[in-house]
Design goal:
Shape: globular
Helix content: 55-70%
Oligomer: single chain
Largest sheet: none
Number of domains: 1
Length: 103
Amino acid sequence: MIGRRGGAAHRPMTCREVARVLQACLDGEAEEATARRVAAHAEDCRRCGLETAVYREIKNSLARQEVPDESAMARLRDFGSALLTAGPPPEAYDEAAELGGGR
């Protein structure tokens, strides 16, 4: 937004936001600022960091034309389903409250 200091580009991303753009980031299709925000979130969030590693493993397996590890595929499916049904993890609400966003 015009006139707003900080804005979305300066606040930490949520797990849900990361999930929406993670694949584009790993494929080099996201804007640099978005890729930096995703990387920062994945570094701080164990759950998203693990999912980033899973996506990378799948991408690398496909690049090598190998079959991705089934446990990685299952974990990825579970992660996507959990985000769709449960929303962000409880710690995301805690972080939002600390930043003044509340629930």
